[in-house]
Amino acid sequence: MAVNLHIPAAADIHAVAGVRIGVAEAGIRKAGRRDLVVFDLAGGTTVAGVFTLNRFRAAPVQLCEKHLARGQAIRALVINTGNANAGTGEPGLAAAQATCDALAAELGAAPTEILPFSTGVILEPLPVDRLVAALPRALADLRGDNWLNAAHGIMTTDTLPKVVSRRVAIGGHAITITGISKGAGMIRPNMATMLGFLATDAGIAQPLLDTLVRELADHSFNRITVDGDTSTNDSFIVMASGQSGLSVQTAADAGYAELRAALIEVSRELAQKIVRDAEGATKFMTLAVEGAVNTREALQVAYAVAHSPLVKTAFYASDPNLGRILAAIGYAGIADLDVAGVDLWLDDVHVATAGGRHPDYREEDGQRVMRQAEITVRIALGRGSAAETVYTCDFSHEYVSINADYRS
Amino acid sequence: MAVNLHIPAAADIHAVAGVRIGVAEAGIRKAGRRDLVVFDLAGGTTVAGVFTLNRFRAAPVQLCEKHLARGQAIRALVINTGNANAGTGEPGLAAAQATCDALAAELGAAPTEILPFSTGVILEPLPVDRLVAALPRALADLRGDNWLNAAHGIMTTDTLPKVVSRRVAIGGHAITITGISKGAGMIRPNMATMLGFLATDAGIAQPLLDTLVRELADHSFNRITVDGDTSTNDSFIVMASGQSGLSVQTAADAGYAELRAALIEVSRELAQKIVRDAEGATKFMTLAVEGAVNTREALQVAYAVAHSPLVKTAFYASDPNLGRILAAIGYAGIADLDVAGVDLWLDDVHVATAGGRHPDYREEDGQRVMRQAEITVRIALGRGSAAETVYTCDFSHEYVSINADYRS
Fold it and tell me: What is the pLDDT of residues A206-256, one digit of tens each?
């Protein structure tokens, strides 16, 4: 049921020099699927990441943060699907550590040079023996053109793999940016989403990359929501191999603005793909809030509307029951909101003004927009100049079916 | 699909001396249903209310607040279903005013002695002419034993009427307490719910009743949620006629503690009935959070769990996918939560401890509890001594069906 989610042709998925990927079947949860992915990074690659703010953050997330905090080179990433290794206490940490130890031994690296990731069911022990046993097969599969297989390899309830790849010319260098993401439920990233991996052959100095990864997340994964459930495993990783010849040290360097813009574009598209393939989604909604006093307030309103089950089911039904949007704006938590200053549009249709229905609004106009697969809800608060945009989807029977059956 | 929602026998629904109710068909939205209710109150009755904090509060809510703020006697209440008269701007206020004017003229009262209430679709004009035309028929129907008809009259997507009635002996007086409520969706009251009406023949001085109504709401309607959508029309009204002979002036008066306890019990039961009849509900869940630093924090955790679509769909499926509860606790917003101190129980089954699964937990024990129609989720945060309890329901296919079809 994915909404306008396109998979690029193989020829349009560009390998990133310095990044090789291997995929293998470990049998973590289900037999017959390649559920283990390894990224192998060439020397000189810088890596930065942002992770969930959920207090029950997964064991691999805890190790990633620890390993990245050392400020030293990262040699490889290892990702399993089928089990989140979250809510698993000390045994979970030991399992994540054992994963790093095993891959490090295979590569002749230190365990702290490995970043581990897991996604799947929470509160169940990770079958680490099966994972470790499959590592040699993943390493035997290492190659540069394995991005689509990796995108398949990290899927859980996703119906389609999510890959975005771009080539841009910056300062005489041909730069490649390729990334993958996954996620369809438990999506309300609060730092980044589970999981996004983005690589470029531009070189980006570590301090700059550490700043940039947060900016990218705030322009992409931190602006999507499916069900408001912030995962225990959200992780967004950016890798910069430098093998294109372009290398930036500071934000003032030549080419950085263009590189940053290209990375934002790819990050946003990866994030939007998660919404397009959200559990049960039939509509892709852009919630644009303007006229807010500040960013926080704009996001409060956008998320209140985006999380309202009543709003989401109305979109599913293509029913212009748009008072539900006003109700959500009204309970978003702006204590001094003057509803007389609020305006609401569906695409180009002016629905509400001055605390009530716009005099020119006709139900058939609302109905026309509601029938579309992609809809922009624009809300003007009339209080200030801050604006924010959040992406979400509708709420369907299928969402309930998927989440009532997820473990079975 | 209501969960253990009982309608008392007619003999167990006690009239409240001083309170007469009339019900009539006004044809507000649908033909053939009695959608208009009038409460007529004897002289000497004190009335207090609490109302939604939604900024898009409905026109009748605005008039109620204004009329109650005068501190003078209230003579009658008038309630329509089928149209919320919310998001209707100035024309909506005029319609609510016209309703008060018309009923006041019929009763020989002042318009400020009338409290108006509306429930139904938002953003549509109230057909006030049809409402006003039906008022004489409602007044012709006035009688003391009309509570069940009134409970029917205020229903929207409710499947069953909600009435609670008690008789208690306090200080030698036989006291009656009877109330009705409605609501099945857009339920996350933030002051009170749309709609609760509670009457007693005890006398309660106005200042004391003004305080008491907030306490009652905080023990009942302000502790339930269905979908997290705070309505534009939430209203909870308490009426005290004094005709039993018992009259209390201050909280220190003889009999007040017993009266308060009885009123809390009835209020809570009325509120719980809304959850039992929530849109699509198949399970009634009690979320008890303890060991919190303060009330706010306990409620944050309870509502995070109560609003999680993933938790709600797991309960619908009777699937003990209980890591979803940990994830919700983890994103509830307690920045310094130490998950090693969190414990989780399903009824008597100890599910999680020390940041992971309890060593004695067996899936079949979780499965056994999940199959029940009523489940208590107990969460101990291990941080302090504050505790709060919130009531909610599961999230089913039927919820989506109801809300995708509500206006059709």
Answer: 999 999 999 998 988 888 888 888 888 888 999 999 999 999 999 999 999
Q: Does A404 touch chain B (CB under 8 A)?
A: yes
Touching B: A residues 238-297, CB under 8 Å: none
Which of A1, A54, A56, A381 to substitute to test the interface with B, most B CBs within 10 Å?
A56
Mutate to test the interface with A, among B123, B126, B334, B343 (most CBs of A within 10 A): B123
- Considering the domain architecture, whether residues A119 and A40 belong to the same structural domain is answered as yes
Span between the terminal Cα atoms of chain A, in Å: 20
CB spacing of A357 vs B88 below 8 angstroms = yes
pLDDT digits (tens, 9 = 90+) for A328-349: 999 999 999 999 999 999 999 9
Of the residues B224, B252, B276, the one at which a domain ends = B276
In chain A, how many domains are there? 2
Active site residues of B: 193
Could you tell me if the ipTM is greater than 0.95?
A: no
Question: Are A30 and A101 within one domain?
Answer: yes
Measured between CB atoms, which of A87, A310, A405 is closest to B403? Answer: A310
CB contact under 8 A, A331 and B54: yes
Name the DSSP class of B231: -
Beta bridge partners of B20: B40
- The residues of chain B scoring below 70 in pLDDT are 1, 191-193, 406-408
If we measure between CA atoms, which residue out of B212, B211, B149, B143 comes closest to residue B180? B149
Average the pLDDT over A272-295 and give the result.
Answer: 94
Q: Tell how strand A349-353 and strand A356-357 pair up.
A: antiparallel
Query: Which pLDDT tens digit goes with each residue over B149-181?
Result: 999 999 988 899 999 999 999 989 999 999 999
Buried b (16+ CB within 10 A) or exposed e, A186-209: bbbbbbbbbbbbbbbbbbbbeebb
- By residue range, what is the domain housing residue B43? 10-276
Q: Which of B238, B167, B163 has the alpha carbon at shortest distance from B204?
A: B238
How high does pLDDT run on average in chain B? 93
**Is A227 close to B124, i.e. CB distance below 8 A?**
no
Q: Which of B227, B250, B276 is the last residue of a domain?
A: B276
